[in-house]
Write a structure and sequence with these properties.
The complex is a heterodimer of chains A (388) and B (356). Helices cover 39% and strands 16% of the residues of chain A. By secondary structure, chain A is α/β, with parallel strands linked by helices. Chain A folds into two domains: 317 residues, Rossmann fold; 65 residues, no CATH class. Chain B is an alpha+beta fold and 356 residues long. Chain B has two domains: 148 residues, PurM-like, N-terminal domain (60s Ribosomal Protein L30, Chain: A, 2-Layer Sandwich), CATH 3.30.1330.10; 158 residues, PurM-like C-terminal domain (Phosphoribosyl-aminoimidazole Synthetase, Chain A, domain 2, Alpha-Beta Complex). Chain B is globular, with a radius of gyration of 21 Å. The two termini of chain B are 36 Å apart. Classes of the chains: A alpha/beta (388), B alpha+beta (356).
């Protein structure tokens, strides 16, 4: 496939892997453990597993899979709010497909749909607006979800609804922003990360400047990375290069997509419609200050939280989940007590098992033969326990 | 006329004059009779169907000439949209059931056709779909010999659902079974993967994709016959429909207690299908096919089978994509283009809504 296969060339990958191997020995380190690099974005996690990149890397490098999967970090209480909205009479509740299976405290949207709620999968918020035009006697609610990547399209949809004076369209805003969360991770005491691969799609909107504090204040190198295997390998090489040369900078590997200044028009639409919330709850990480956005009061008539009764209940993460520790790189997914036992992609307990971009789901699905064997043994053990 | 063919029963044919299906067309009266006569009997036109008995009747002795076992299968078709590039629900309903018979090694003979129609359905479209079924059956050499028609209230079904049941005869000596994959066997497919699912996705207006992809909807029984002629000892055959290649290989690996090792580089996938998958974040190995099979054959016979397949249009792109190994038991392992390995597991749920 043109413009894609070029970034998946196994021979070039081999060259990069060799270069990484040569460079890693030059990185000055005082630690007895491997270098820890965090890929912030779930898209990277998915690629890393799909192409088996972890196995290509030298043992001296460990990838830590960050919090950048918006579906995964959605707290249970917010899913319950979605269900409450969807189950109101005369409502068409629209959502991206991957949010359908996220578990609430009792059920997910797929089950609510089966129970009679009018839940529909859309591929863009504009599709939800079209539904609103087509169904003037119904209230159409769009479940807005995601980082700065999806925020502009939601904002533009609200602006379009305003222009057309569409009264039966509302947004249930769950958009979140990655920077405060990266900061929260860097501030937590158990973290020993050495560098970052920055999110490519988010940066396409926000540009490179918002990451400056990571390099300047926390003295960690960060390279904004594309999503193809060669992008990821090159970005790892660039982080190592900085470490070897004792530099801490924000570098942009994904220049073919990410302009350093970001996308001004997208940012303008976002700041017209949204403002920061004081705090937002993340599954696995808890409440993080200024990590979510809500609609400005000028757009209150499109705000599902103001237009409808939203229960807004807080539901604690299951105690057995160790998602937070996995997210911070303190443990690997399979070291979690419930991984592959109580928590599987079929019955996810924790955030990271929910979407294919979550670190645990990625390990579970693509984890390779050894992991599969281990899981089978575990499953048999569990069955044996039940039998007893 | 063949020995088991009943005599034609002459009676005046009903004629349907309405433009839309109403509940009356399912009520058992004259309107229903007109619909069945005009749309279905008219299209399928054969001596078994014409008398409109409640059942088709066959001579057992005539069936027994073709082999020593019957193959019997059923499948329901709810595809949306009803017409898509490369086929429609009618051709799909005929070929799909033919293929379910064919992968047992059977020669498909007779089909039933049950339709559930939503009130308000366009009669011309129904006629076109019935004619498509008839053409597909004729091309494949099978007969549609019995049927049923129901009309349900608007909203109680989505436009049109079709169920087809099929009967075929398995020749003596053919022993195709999911439990027979052995270490060292070759894994073969007959062509590009994911065409049907990708065509359906691209045909959906809500996705606004304009990819020139056609469904691979096609009958496979002639291909299977050619494969059996090249190697009578084919171990396993599966029609890779819903869940795609990944799902059938997982089923075979589990039934036979072996590992299916496949190589990403050898999987035939069209560029356009790769493109659709790339945009939507899907994996071609999980995408539905409607004219593709996976075969497990003894390693020594692999090239012979592939050559026999390539001689037919529906096997032109046939390829060996991997090998059966001993461990890890019950799993499908894919070697990535990077030389890494990953487990290709069963999907947890539906990757996509209703595509076959």
């Amino acid at each position: 496939m043109k413009y894609v296969d070029e970034f998946r060339d196994p021979h070039k990958a081999r060259v990069l892997v060799n270069a990484i191997g040569a460079l890693v020995s030059k990185v000055p380190t005082t630690k007895s453990r491997p270098l820890q690099l965090m890929e912030v974005c779930g898209g990277h996690t998915h690629s890393i597993f799909r192409y088996g990149i972890e196995k290509l890397l030298p043992d001296a490098i460990e990838l830590v899979h960050g919090p950048g999967c918006p579906v995964c970090v959605l707290p249970m209480g917010r899913v319950d709010d979605c269900l409450a909205l969807a189950e109101q009479p005369n409502v068409i509740f629209t959502t991206f497909g991957d949010a359908m299976r996220v578990p609430g405290s009792k059920k997910n949207l797929l089950q609510a749909k089966a129970d009679g709620a009018d839940v529909r999968m859309v591929y863009s918020p504009m599709d939800a607006l079209t539904l609103a035009r087509q169904n003037p006697d119904k209230e159409v609610i769009f479940f807005g979800l995601g980082f700065e990547t999806t925020m502009p399209s939601t904002a533009l949809t609200v602006l379009q609804a305003e222009r057309e004076n569409i009264r039966n369209f509302a947004l249930f805003c769950n958009h979140i922003t990655i920077i405060p969360t990266v900061k929260a991770i860097l501030d937590s005491p158990e973290v020993t990360l050495d560098g970052f691969l920055g999110p490519g799609h988010v940066s396409m909107v926000i540009g490179t400047a918002p990451y400056d504090f990571i390099a300047r204040h926390y003295r960690k190198p960060i390279v904004i990375a594309g999503f193809e295997p060669l992008d990821i390998l090159q970005s790892i090489w660039m982080v190592l290069k900085q470490l070897a040369e004792r530099r801490c900078e924000v570098e942009n590997q994904y220049q073919r997509v990410v302009p350093d200044a970001g996308n001004e028009q997208a940012l303008a639409a976002v700041s017209t419609v949204f403002e920061l919330r004081e705090f937002f709850e993340w599954r696995g990480l808890g409440s993080i200050d200024h990590s979510g956005v809500r609609m400005r009061k000028e757009y209150a008539r499109f705000d599902a939280e103001r237009k409808f009764a939203v229960p807004n209940v807080k539901i604690a993460d299951p105690k057995s989940c160790q998602c937070g520790e996995v997210l911070k790189g303190a443990i690997k997914p399979w070291q979690c007590k419930v991984f592959g036992r109580a928590c599987t992609p079929e019955t996810p307990l924790g955030a990271l098992m929910v979407s294919s971009e979550g670190a645990c789901a990625a390990y579970f699905n693509y984890g390779g033969v050894d992991l599969a064997k281990m899981l089978r043994v575990r499953m048999e053990e569990t069955e044996a326990e039940h039998a007893r | 006329m063949r020995a088991d063919e009943p005599h034609l029963f002459r009676r005046p044919r009903g004629k349907l004059r309405d433009t839309r299906i109403t509940l009356a067309h399912g009520a058992g009266g004259k309107a229903m009779r007109d619909l069945i006569d005009d749309v279905f009997v008219g299209a399928f036109g054969n001596a078994w169907l014409a008398p409109l008995e409640d059942q088709a009747r066959f001579s057992l002795a005539a069936l027994a000439i073709g082999g020593d076992r019957l193959a019997f299968t059923t499948d329901s078709y709810v595809v949306d949209p009803l017409i898509f590039p490369g086929g429609d629900i009618g051709s799909l309903a005929v070929n799909g059931t033919i293929n379910d018979l064919a992968v047992s090694g059977a020669r498909p003979l007779y089909l039933s056709c049950g339709v559930i129609i939503e009130e308000g359905f366009d009669v011309e479209l129904l006629r076109a779909i019935a004619q498509s079924m008839a053409r597909t059956a004729l091309a494949a050499g099978v007969q549609i010999v019995t049927g049923d028609t129901k009309v349900v209230q608007r909203g109680a079904a989505d436009k049109l659902f079709i169920n087809t049941t099929g009967i075929g005869v398995i020749p003596c000596g053919v022993e195709i079974a999911a439990t027979r994959a052995r270490v060292g066997d070759a894994i073969i497919v007959n062509g590009t993967l994911g065409d049907h699912g990708a065509a359906i996705l691209a045909a959906r207006k809500d996705l606004a994709l304009s990819a020139p992809i056609e469904s691979d909807c096609q009958p496979l029984h002639e291909l299977v016959r050619a494969m059996l002629a090249a190697c009578p000892d084919i171990h396993c055959l599966r029609d890779a429909t819903r869940g795609g290649l990944a799902t059938v290989l997982n089923e075979l690996a589990q039934s036979s207690g072996v590992c299916m090792r496949i190589e990403e580089q050898r999987l035939p996938v069209r560029e356009t299908v790769k493109g659709v998958c790339e945009i939507l974040g899907l994996d071609p190995v999980y995408i539905a096919n409607e004219g593709k099979l996976a075969a497990i054959v003894p390693g020594v016979a692999a090239m012979q089978v592939v050559e026999a397949m390539r001689a037919l249009p529906c096997g032109r792109d046939a390829a060996v994509i991997g090998e059966v190994a001993a461990a890890p038991e019950g799993m499908v392992v894919l070697q990535t283009i990077f030389g890494g390995e990953r487990v290709v597991d069963m999907l947890v749920g539906e990757q996509l809504p209703r595509i076959c």
